Amino acid sequence: MSNNDDRLNNASQQGLRAQVAATPVGAVALASQVKETQDKQSVKVEVGEITVDLNINGENYALMLEPRVTLLDALRERLQLTGSKKGCDHGQCGACTVIIDGQRVYSCLSLAVMQEGKEITTIEGLTQGDDLHPMQLAFIENDGFQCGYCTPGQICAAVALIDEVKQGCASVVTENLTENLVDNLNGLPQLANLSELEIRERMSGNLCRCSAYNGIVAAIQQIAGQIPPEPAALVMVQGQA
Questions:
Q1: Which domains does the chain have, with CATH numbers?
Q2: What does the pLDDT look like over 180-225, one tens digit per residue?
Q3: Banded pLDDT at 167 (limits 50, 70, 90)
Q4: What's the sign of the alpha-carbon dihedral 28, 33, 34, 35?
Q5: Which helix (H) or strand (E) is 166 found in, with range?
Q6: Distances in Å between the alpha carbon of 219 and those of 40, 50, 57, 81, 223?
Q7: Of 151, 154, 166, 221, which one has the greatest count of Cβ atoms within 10 A?
Q8: What mean pLDDT is predicted for residues 71-94?
Q9: Is residue 86 within 8 Å of 96, Cβ to Cβ?
Q10: What's the angle, vertex CA 167, arms to CA 129 and CA 155, rounded to 5?
Q11: How far apart are CA 139 and CA 189, in angstroms?
Q12: Is 148 left (phi over 0), alpha (psi -120 to 50) or beta?
């Protein structure tokens, strides 16, 4: 059949539809057919999606997601909580770090569906209204960032680090665990001194391409109640004087 014949057949079919639609019965039938087509299309879009209930920053959200959607993509693409950054997307840089039930987690490696019933805190949830979290203020005061891309993950990891220390969690570099522990107000053992080595080891999963590590360590020591090391530039100036 030639292209001309095809066009003639299509035109005839369109003309027939127009004639049928001009009658009351035909209009109802045509409208029903259109609705059925639309319903099929909408079902096709939702195939594979399930309802996922998440508690994020103290608020409950019911999202329609495929089971394979990561928590990071759900935060950024569905809820517009873009503070958590997508860096490597392989759990190697820490830019996507969030806090789940008090523990730091790479949200790029965590499926959203697996977080139901848990309390999720992102960088947006650390503030109290217009008041910044103490760790955020410490990062500002100690220049714990440069470009700022990794900073949300760094801060979430640092907040969780302080809680880990309060719970008496040790790291691979913790020396003589029994002698270096003291009881805190909750009766739990914790490190008497959070050394620079301890902080660097515990924060080793969060990379900073700008190399603002000295400021990051100083910020964490400040929140831990310790005197952070003086900036190298200030030490040099004092030495020359």
A1: 45-121 (3.10.20.30), 126-232 (1.10.150.120)
A2: 555 555 555 566 678 899 999 999 999 999 999 999 999 999 998 8
A3: confident
A4: positive
A5: helix 151-166
A6: 56, 41, 23, 25, 6
A7: 154
A8: 97
A9: yes
A10: 40
A11: 27
A12: left
